[in-house]
Amino acid sequence: MTGEIDDGRVVSATREIAAGAERIFELIADPAEQPRWDANDNLATAAGGQRVRSVGDVFLMTITTGGVRENHVVEFEEGRRIAWRPAEPGNEPPGHLWAWTLEPIESSRTRVTHTYDWTQLTDEGRFGRARATTVDKLRASLDRLAAIAERD
Are 32 and 44 in contact (CB under 8 A)? Predict the structure, then answer.
């Protein structure tokens, strides 16, 4: 597993998971599954039936504080890449991005990279929370995702 920080505003971690890319991607692209593997312990629930299918999709997530986030999908390639920008309902995203890239190694092994990018975040009130999203947090999410994908 590797981890990387670029300018402190792009944090990334990579890990090989002993599962196929399709299986792993389903766990990421279905918002109802995300609280199972989120190591930021920020996600509480998401209604079923919101599986992401394309750029422009918006899925709703209830966070642990009880608030709701609209997640605007800005990158999507089925089974390979997904990225979204969270926002408070009805507002423009404030400038941070969650991204996942999957690279199949073989049918039952996938290299997964999880990235948090806050280079476009301008609200200084959000900087503390953004800085708290470390390589270790991303690695922990990858570890939880691997445990689910390899077990289920």
Answer: no
